[in-house]
Description:
Layout: E1 4-8, H1 10-27, E2 33-39, H2 43-52, E3 57-66, E4 77-81, E5 91-99, H3 103-113, E6 119-127, E7 140-144, E8 150-151, E9 167-170
Parallel strand pairs: 2-3, 2-5, 5-6, 6-7
Antiparallel strand pairs: 1-9, 3-4, 8-9
Helix pairs in contact: 1-2
The structure holds inosinic acid and magnesium ion.
Amino acid sequence: MEEVKVLIDEQKLQARVDEIAKQIGEEYKNKEIILICILKGSIFFTVDLARKINEDVRIEFIRVSSYGEGTESTGEIKMKLDLKDSIQGKDVIVVEDIIDTGRTLSYLIEYLKMKKPNSIKLCALLDKPERRVKKVNVDYTGFQIPDKFIVGYGLDWDEKYRNLPYIGYIEN
Length: 172
Ligand code: IMP
Ligand code: MG
């Protein structure tokens, strides 16, 4: 059994989610926000953010997977679950758990722009800048973290550990 170590504890994590929600609320005053949750990893973050934003919020889901095995994405993206409702003319914030190489998001943002939202911003809880291959502009970042394999708060290792209330990493 692998050992999970704590990187960001629950209190620090929730305090940062509060700050991001407050910032979004101020920047989107009196606007309806569409949060696009990228399944499955972003589900906990999206729900907590939505609860803490004091503006009208709608939640949509999208699921993509990258081709290729192992822990690194290849950049070839497969749409597993597409949006069900139109985002045309809407103010959209894409909510992602972690940006690693940036391949998933650079593809997804281009894809979503074709659906003609009024605006599109990106909110990522975690960012591993050392690993970036494709440039992505992140509007809201929770934490910049070192190059470790992360689990918890939605992030998984082979579908395990998503339900941990903190951000952890697997040693070795
Ligand atoms: P990217 O396309 O390389 O930026 O990969 C992004 C996706 O890979 C994320 O949405 C995660 O689903 C997954 N991923 C990247 N790093 C980790 C990690 O440390 N733990 C768990 N999943 C990760
Ligand atoms: Mg993900």
